[in-house]
Amino acid sequence: MIERLYEKVCALDYGRDCYNLRFMYSKGEGVRQSTQKALEYFGEACDLESQLVVKIMQNLNYLNEYCFNN
């Protein structure tokens, strides 16, 4: 039932909780695994410019550049 709390807080435009929902749905942690819902919440977190999401995307971009350009 924690996902309901995260959903309510995410609806109030808290990016970190949207990101937490993305994690829960992508891993099936406490909820039925759903790639579609995980992507929706990840997009919501990105739209809210969550600092956590921005850092993750920056790290992924760095890893992508390092792995494929070296």
Could you describe the 3D structure shown?
This protein has 70 residues and is mostly helical. The chain has a single domain, classed as Alpha Horseshoe (Serine Threonine Protein Phosphatase 5, Tetratricopeptide repeat), CATH 1.25.40.10. 79% of the residues lie in helices and 0% in strands. It has four helices and no strands. The chain has helices at 2-11, 15-27, 35-47, 51-69. Helix 1 (2-11) runs antiparallel to helix 2 and helix 2 (15-27) packs antiparallel against helix 3. The longest helix is centred in the C-terminal third of the chain and has 19 residues, at 51-69. The radius of gyration is 13 Å and the shape is globular.
**CATH homologous superfamily designation:** Tetratricopeptide repeat domain
Major sheet: size, sense and barrel closure? none
Q: Shape from CA axes?
A: globular
The total number of structural domains is 1
The whole-angstrom Rg is 13 Å
Elements, N to C (H/E): HHHH
For the record, the CATH class is Mainly Alpha
Low-confidence stretches: none
Strand content: under 5%
Specify the number of helices.
4
Note the quaternary state here: single chain
